[in-house]
Amino acid sequence: MTRRDYLQLVAAGAAATATTRTLIAAGGDADREKRMKWWHEARFGMFIHWGLYSVLGRHEWAMENEGIPVAEYEQLAKRFKPRPNAARDWARLAKAAGQKYMVMTTKHHEGFCNFDTKLTNYNAVKQGPGRDLVREYVEAARAEGLRVGFYYSLMDWHHPDGARCATDEAARRRFVEYTHGLIRELMTNYGKIDVLWYDVAWPLDAKGWESERMNEMVFQLQPEIIVNNRNKLEGDFATPEQRIQAEKRAWESCMTMNDSWGYQRADDDWKTPKTIVRNLITCSRDTGNYLLNIGPKADGSVPEESVRDLTSVGKWMGRNGKSIYETEVCQPRRSNFAGFTRKGNTLYMHVYFWPGETVALGGLQSKVKSAHLLATGAPVKFEQEKFRVRFTGLPAAAPDDPVTTIAIECDGEPKQDMDMVRKERPRGSV
Question: Can you tell me whether residue 416 is helix, strand or coil?
Fold first, then answer.
């Protein structure tokens, strides 16, 4: 080998290494499909916002929105004394609800660390709780067979460099090293972690956060992890918040059960089980995930409204989960009283507003082979015409609550063509 050949080989290797590092930093390595397989199949997860704001019970942004001074807010840490292993109830509730993974706040914007860290005394071990709340959560999730996710807020209202890092380079370097150090502890001290959920990158950009180096460190420590897009890099999945917005890439819609992420004792705007199920169906239709939040009280207990609604959703999932987990892109979507999901050649018609003894679907182009109620397996009679399929002989009242699902077996991938119906449907005489 000549020196020139050798130098070319070295250069090629360096370029390949740099490319690999960039892909890993962006969460876009060639192994992404394998890493995300479980996540795509799961569809439904539990988000948990829990911290010092739970003591106040006035929303997770209370420190910022009410202008509470740091020294005053710090006193909440002494009053934050949750009962031991409260996370066991969260995990049991998540499993009963049909959720497959959990994501908990390890540090929210307030800067308080729910975990044991050597980098600050403002943490759950050295303050009121006197123990590692993240470790309790991890053990609880694993005990129920659920995947483990960590939420981590980059923004920090407590750290002295958290705001000035955008205008002071020395402060930026200190704060970035502090941030990377906390993430390194989270990725090192709790075994295998499945999801890292960054949040609020204010006030820096990806370069300022050194996000590529951040993600590279995360993937080196947790090679099978998936990361979101909120440290200003693309990540493995997008995160529409408080809305359902399908994307061309992997996506997860995160929502609250009322209007608050953290415990807000006065917030009574609770989603109904029907709304939650409909949202889950809509996400699954377009192969998105639904990450639904609970905001535990300071003692760790879950508001009874959340328990009630998630328990109801879980019963529905027990009967109809087949139509949610592992679903594929669903082209049929037009109905004024139903939504749709698909798995292979099976179309699931989720009837939100039960019309009575006959349920009709317009524009279905695939031939229907059979149909049945998913919850009970009871066969459903049907009549298929060119422009519609009519499912007949059904009960006058909805046979399932809060949504009735009809499983429709087709001779191929279900397709719906409403343009054909509009153009070709026979019209009566004028």
Answer: strand
